[in-house]
Design brief:
- By secondary structure, the protein is α+β, with helices and mostly antiparallel strands.
- It folds into 2 domains: about 100 residues, 2-Layer Sandwich (Alpha-Beta Plaits); about 50 residues.
- Helices cover about 45% and strands about 15% of the residues.
- It is built from 6 helices and 4 strands; from the N terminus they run αββααββααα.
- It has a 4-stranded mixed sheet with strand order 1-2-3-4.
- Strand 3 and strand 4 form a beta hairpin.
- The longest helix has 18 residues.
Length: about 170
């Protein structure tokens, strides 16, 4: 589905005027967007009164929670390359990130948050662009697998087991 069609579909999920703008973000527009992925930002009117609380963004989320949940579930079909759904009042944002790839089964992998420097992001994104990995998470898993292949890692693992055995004796 092309962007104008996705935008029409997204807007149709909310009452007329509830969403001011739909912004499609690509790699380079936001550091959270990976190569080949698309983020969607729905900008709401912070001054528009919405029942549910004093904070317009939280109130919007509360009032439209069912529509937001359904949209998040439908986005993989509407825009398979999406990776982020964000709601913004122009000042603050609430967002949901699509975790996991299509071939990943829930429960097999543990989400881990890491703060990376620009050079680290560039390294991961190079692995994606080169086709070695499909996402930053996949690139990190690839790099860890290369570390495990090194003989020194086997020796290090053995030493850690020995240290743990010594600790247990105290």
């Amino acid at each position: 589905m092309d962007e104008p069609a996705v935008e029409r579909e997204v807007r149709s999920r909310f009452p007329e005027g509830a969403v001011q703008r739909v912004v499609f973000m690509r790699y380079g527009d936001d550091p959270a967007i990976e190569p080949g992925r698309v983020g969607i930002r729905l900008v709401i009117d912070p001054a528009k009164p919405v029942e549910g609380g004093p904070d317009a963004l939280a109130a919007f989320h509360h009032v439209h929670e069912d529509a937001i949940r359904k949209l998040a579930g439908d986005l993989p079909k509407l825009l398979p390359e999406h990776s982020r759904l964000e709601f913004s009042d122009g000042d603050k944002s609430l967002f949901m990130i699509g975790f996991g790839g299509p071939d990943e089964r829930p429960g097999e992998l543990t989400p881990v948050m890491a703060r990376l420097a620009p050079t680290d992001l560039e390294t991961l994104d190079t692995l994606i662009t080169a086709g070695i990995a499909t996402s930053r998470a996949d690139a990190v898993r690839w790099a860890l697998a290369r570390i495990r292949e090194r003989p020194a890692y086997g020796q290090l693992s053995q030493r850690v087991r020995e240290i743990n055995e010594l600790k247990a004796q105290f």
